[in-house]
Design goal:
This protein is of the alpha/beta class. Strands 3-2-1-4-5-6-7-8 form an 8-stranded mixed β-sheet, with helices on both faces. The chain is built from 7 helices and 8 strands, in the order E-H-E-H-E-H-E-H-E-H-E-H-E-H-E.
Length: about 180
Amino acid sequence: MRIGIIGAGSLGTALGQRLGAAGHEVMFGGSATALEAANRMDALVGANSEAAAFGEVLILAVPYPAADTALQEAGSLKGQVLWSCVNALKRDMSGLMIGFDTSAAEEIARRVPHARVVGAIPPFANALVAGELTYEGSLTPSVFICGDDPSAKLLVTRLVGDLGAQPVDAGRSPPRDWWSRR
């Protein structure tokens, strides 16, 4: 499968390396860090819009404050499977930027309403980089997967499995007005 990745920090780079090793074609979008990530493996590099156009699945692995710019640079994502690995933590890790009434993936989905957004944040970038995903000798980490599009969730589920993690279907995103109905 062709995978576009926007965000070449530790998580984006680790996902690219692991998915590339699993036989997927990878293209990083972005600037100098994307070029560095691509040079560490057999991957392509281009602008964010090129990575978006390249990928059957586009992984967004940027800090929450950078998401809007990255999505604008990606261009039209109509019909695109967008795997959001964005966490809404404040830069200083002191809490969430968006409170508790929504999630980063839901906010991303609002920004690109025609994309097929799936939220799944692998919490083990360092383990991916090291190439070892088991804990305590045999425990496999789980990744919760949530989204409204069953076929998009299936693609991301397969990719999470290719990482060596255990995908866990966390269901659909709640309806947009769920919190107001409580």
